[in-house]
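Q: Hi! First time doing this. I have a protein sequence and I read that you can turn it into a structure. Is that right? Here it is:
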Amino acid sequence: MDFTFLPFILLFLLLSFSIISAANPIPKAVIFQQHLTSKPTTTATNGIPPTTYFEITKPIQLPNTKPCSTLLLRHEFGNSYGIPPASTQYTRPSNCPSTNFAKIVLEWNATCKDQDHGYKEWADLIIPISQNIPLDDALWFKIYNSNDVKTKQFVIPPNAYRAVLEVYVSVDEADVLWPRNLPNDYISSNNLTGRPAINPYLWGQISAIGSFALPSYDIEITPLLGSLLNGKLHDFAFGVTNGLNVWLIDANLHVWLDAKSEKTKGMLLNQTISPLHESLKSNFMGFNGTFVTSVHRSIKSSGWVESSFGKIVTESTQDFNLSNIMVMGNDGGSQTVNQTIEFNDKVASSVHNTKSLKSFYFYLYSERVDNGDRNQEEVENVTLGFNEKKIDNFGSKSSSSVLENLQNIHGSMILKDNVVVSGLGSSQQNYSYSDDKFCYFRNISRISFTIIYDKVGDTCSKPKNQDSIFNG
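A: Yes, that's right. Below is the predicted 3D structure, encoded as structure tokens:
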């Protein structure tokens, strides 16, 4: 009998087979469980009774005679992936009054322990991937240009069975306003110097999305554990493609450890890293022109790790897409930027499945008008948006969430000899979050440094099911 359809991550499985035989039909009211030699475990764990799974099908028609049964196999196993199935010798049962059977029925029952009592949702160990202590500066690495690479050595404990790298990235100096930075050929052709400046009146009490709570990014590196579980030092290296200065980067390595094993093992099955597809199309004459930039990259890794939980295959997929359309007009006096970033990642294994769709939106229109007498007026309209849809399945637990965050900002200022003398700003923000248990929204507006509207609530529409949050 082939049991390869069973999930190979089961920690514990108790099988009992019984043959029920009879010479004549028996009443339909008799059910198989009444004649089992042994029954599967029904003990509650942490006060929660075991869940019974069954398939809907028609009942087996039985003879109307008294049955007899015999136990064929009782087997307890774990960590059995790739091991030959359990087997037993069969002989005719000796306790039956007759050997002429009208019907023979094979009955199979199984009980398994929940993954919730072994494979854990949270890491056992967190290893900082940052500058070494003591130091004269902050813990994060500083990446000064596209050729600058910073590394950190680390050791993975030999009994690790899962690893996730949580990466934090921030930006400073020349790349603070990187979405509106001008292409190099436009700068050199027009003999431009300096960097784009920001209108200080765009932001009042309501700061930009991500200015304080900048998100970190999780990278599942479990498929790579087979190359790391050798007790040797390994390097993490950080770099920024086409970066100017300065980018701040550090990370945390989350590691799950198998308390029942001194050493786990694994293997990288496949890794596909697409080349970084970059495209910049410039079409300009003098100070006027259009620039279209697109970037795409996809990374997919799969590998297995064998521990006391069994042999678990994990597949990680990441897709990144960027589109930036910039228009310079009015002889360089106006700039329009329309940028969208989509970052989708997915992790799939027999015990843990996550899917996250993130989108970042940035729109800017800026115009500077010369009013004479060394006076200039600059007006800017900005839209920022961040949306995330996420589902997470871990063993018997599942969750889903939807985040929608949108800002509309307006700023104007008067300059004299390129020095700001006055200005005004306003902004409006809609924030909405909902998951399976919690809901929150906030709608807030301000003019200059005065809040004119602020509504907060905890009632909003929640996703009906996990699939629905990825539709529409």
